[in-house]
Amino acid sequence: MFIVCVAACPTGIAHTYMAAEALEMLGKKNGWEIKVETQGSTGIENEITEDDIARADGAIIATEILIDGVERFELLTKLECSVADPIKQPDAVYNTMMHLINNK
């Protein structure tokens, strides 16, 4: 399973990168291939491409702000959550994403 993710917080520093790391760990733990794009004070890093989106099974948008390019994900099964959720509740994020994918 391939999941694309975006992590972003208002300042784009600590929580953005903590969430990105938590999402990558979530992927490893559950056998997902993960690509995490971060949006913050340094701009967009590890940008998700059209090819990534075309092969993705779903998207996790973990943000506290309106992200650039949100429309890219409109055709994907998508979980929108707080940037803190992957950090504090990774199992809930996983279970919710799997529920969405399995019930689309």
From TrEMBL:
Q: EC no.?
A: 2.7.1.202
Q: Indicate the segments forming the PTS EIIB type-2 domain, all copies.
A: 1-99
> Could you tell me which CDD domains the record lists for this protein?
PTS_IIB_fructose (cd05569)
Q: Does the keyword ATP-binding apply?
A: no
Catalyzed chemical reaction(s): D-fructose(out) + N(pros)-phospho-L-histidyl-[protein] = D-fructose 1-phosphate(in) + L-histidyl-[protein]
- Taxonomically, the superkingdom here is Bacteria
Instruction: Keywords in alphabetical order, please.
Output: Kinase, Phosphoprotein, Phosphotransferase system, Sugar transport, Transferase, Transport
Which InterPro entries does the record associate with it? Bacterial_PTS_Sugar_Transport (IPR050864), PTS_EIIB-like_sf (IPR036095), PTS_EIIB_2 (IPR013011), PTS_EIIB_2/3 (IPR003501), PTS_IIB_fruc (IPR003353)
Q: What is this protein called?
A: protein-N(pi)-phosphohistidine--D-fructose phosphotransferase
Organism equals Enterovibrio gelatinilyticus
